[in-house]
Prior knowledge:
Blueprint: E1 20-28, E2 32-34, E3 37-39, E4 48-51, E5 57-58, E6 64-70, E7 75-81, E8 86-87, E9 95-96, E10 103-108, H1 110-140, H2 146-161, H3 163-176, H4 184-195, H5 198-206, H6 211-259, H7 263-276, H8 281-293, H9 298-313, H10 321-336, H11 341-359, H12 364-379, H13 383-400, H14 405-418, H15 422-440, H16 445-460, H17 464-481, H18 487-502, H19 506-523, H20 526-542, H21 546-558, H22 565-580, H23 584-604, H24 616-640, H25 645-660, H26 664-682, H27 687-702, H28 706-724, H29 729-744, H30 748-766, H31 773-786, H32 790-808, H33 813-834, E11 839-845, H34 852-855, E12 862-867, E13 870-871, H35 878-885, E14 890-896, E15 899-905, E16 911-917, H36 920-940
Parallel strand pairs: 1-10
Antiparallel strand pairs: 1-6, 2-3, 4-5, 4-7, 7-9, 8-10, 11-12, 11-16, 12-13, 12-14, 14-15
Amino acid sequence: MKRRLLYILGLLVLSVGATAQIQQGCVKTRGRMVNGKLVPGTMIDHAVVQIKNRNNLVSGKDGTFSFPVSSGKSYILLGARKEGYQMVDVEACREYRPSQTPLYIVMETPERQRADQREAQRKIRDNLNRLLLERETEIERLNIQQAQKDSLIDLLYQQQSDNEKLIADMARRYSEIDYDQLDEYYRQVSYCIEQGELVKADSLLRSRGDVNQQVEQQLQAGKAIKQEEEKVQHDKAIHSQVNEELARRCYSFYETFAAQHQRDSACHYLEQRARLDTTNLDWLTDVGLYHVYVMAQYDRALEYFQRALRQALSMDDGKNLGVAVAFNNIGLVYAMQDTDYPQALEYLLKGMRIVEELKGTENAEVAFCYSNVSMVFGNMNLNDLSLEYALKALEIREKLQSEDIDQSYNSVGLAYKEKENFPKALEYLQKAYETSKQKRGEKEHHTIDYLNSIGSLYNAMWDLPAALDCYHQVLTVRKEIYDENHPDIGYSYNVIGNVYSRKQDYAQALPYYQKAISVWEKRRDNQTLAIMYQNMAICYQNLGESRQALEFLQKSLKKHGEDSHEVIKIFEHMSQLYLSLQDSAHAVDCQEKVAEIKSRYAATGGVSPDRGEANAETIAETAQNLSYHLRTLAVLDSIFGSEHNHVADVCSAISRDYGFLRDLQRSEEYQERALSLRKRLNGEHSLKVADSFMDCAMYYLMKGENAKAMDYIEKAKAIKTEMLGKDHPDVASVEIWEALVYILTEQWENFIACSRHVLAVKEKTWGPDHIYSTDIIEQLGRAYYELGDYTSALDCLQQSLKIKERYIGPNHTSVLQTKEYVGEVEKEKQRIERISDLRVITLTPLEEGDSPARQQGLEGKYIILEYCGWHFGEEHVFEKTFNACITQPKDVVLIKDGVITKHHFEEKIGARIKSEDLTKEEKQHIREAYEAWKDNANVSR
Length: 941
């Protein structure tokens, strides 16, 4: 799995909704008091409740409903409706604060509501009339003149006439009271007032003490609280000032210790500052960043980033850049540990979308998002998506003349590296390094990470001396700025060891591997240690120390799971070592364990670990990629929706993963989904569709259906050639698969023409005479060998040998294999030269496809008499003519069963052309027939 440089942003990524609580509610009829006892209301189901800015809610069978509300934020009830019902209290439609108390919505039928109001009016009017009569009787009993009594009674009746408004208001209030929502005390008070039992109501109210006195006491308590609050505010101001001063001192201590590389002390004072104010997002983030970059304590970093996240979510309904910072940092910590790329990607993508919504797509913050998304896509081998986002980030930063443009240079460079465009990759990685060096200095972690990226590029290009130079510089600086057990120092030791191993300088590689192991053992990273131990074993084996190699393989076994592909590889390696030590018993034990594990794979339907075309390590990595890609697809579906090119790209990657693992049914399923999506989104004739055609071609190649594979390859090539030009690297990449089909169908003539063009295009990317060219050059040598052109075959093989020796030395296994092949071809060439007078050149039309030879009716094997100016009897020089005329118009004269025919081909023939032996008598008969044919042709002319 690739490990890319990742950045912790100081500004953003990923905002989600603020912490929320669930507001409960119910819809019901009014609770009533009957004869002093509560009669509860009944629940109303299927009532529609309207809350502002929310979809309508519907009450359940028990009348209840619920909805989420942001903590500390209010909500507004707009109304409720149910056929045949109306809200009892329309003033309930108002703003509410979230509460643990349910939101009660009381509804009644209009008839019942009117009846309740009439009943309330009747009761109140009867009570008032009774009081009127009682007052009138009291006045009559007064010992005053009649005129005075009449005056008081008139006033009493005048007041009674003003009571109608009071009756209406009280009737409305009491007809709306939901007694279910009152406690028992206020139920009785309200019921007494409603029934006109005012003395009893007065008695109940007075039972809780003198209300006037309690009002005064409450006012005094309020004044005391206000005074206390003023004192608290004063104390807070002083506390804040002291906090700021202590924070400044802590930070100064941090700077002092950091300058002396006393990392533990520097970290301590950053943590002390964060303790002073756990709501300060910057202080929490600073500690987290220090734990990531300097201490490499990822769990501790996550603790601080998660604290920052909780604080940010409590602000502004969670829609702020503080939330983005926290989630970005959490996501990238996951990515830096190589633990969960899909989860990291989910955080980054959600943050990217939110930043795009809040600030648009032309700002520094969204460029940070694009850059980090690019890196995580790259770590999951989704290289096209990685390059897409890297270029988007770079475009924005160039427009803004951003100070962080070095990060985009690096991202673009790494993406081009994965696409094997080495000149472009080197251009951008050097820009990143030089820009950061000028801005931050040579010994800053970003700068040194960029230099490490350049080293990895040189390593990929097989420029091993340049790679070592970069890696040694990186190691020197990292040892100055990091703790000795920092993982980046472990990585540096390991990559240097890897380069020496690549050079087959195992004695030099060993001490670097040993130092890397020392780092990882202290960090207790079992996965990395397992790989380190295997590296040590390979070194010791190549140094002839088999027992030492076995010791480290045993250590590696202890770090692996029981049935992993890697365990099979280790047991097979151990078996070879035991055989070299003539310990056949232990060798057999290892082979039996391999067989046992493989049988368990077969029993559980697992991928067979003994695939001939791919080793266990590659299968395991593909399985890991498949797991990542499937989870990534779910992430992209949730963020972008199912109709998006990103979804199609990941479906395409999943199809290739399944294909490699030989699950062809699922491979086809995702391949078809990707193709269908790309056609809808981009049109039938687009580069994306061409990519899907290549997926289809690979699918049919795996099924062994070469003709169908070639059909899709030609479709993809036609689109890419039209849109990019025939000399574009992407066209050459298609032609590599075209050449593979020619190999499988032994169309050597076509293979040579195709591969020559691929080589010419790829050399523009790789540079001339690059080690990556040797695969193509050696395949050309094989093709010439099959055609009997041994001189051209030797030229190719010797060219490849010369390149390999320059890159990897004369004793490398690959060099020795090529030398062996050269020797075989030379022997065959010498043998053929000795019997060249008995050789003829044959032509056999291809069995598959509608080739030009078949179009002219050619079937079976022919002997070539003339070929583009060459004549029968000159077999020893045929190869020169053949090479010159591969793609040229040509006349060809053939003989079969004594019949001679002449043909013209504009370019390719579509046939196998070989050199074969004949007896002297056979060759003489052909020569006589050919001479007679020529004489007749001359007579005809």
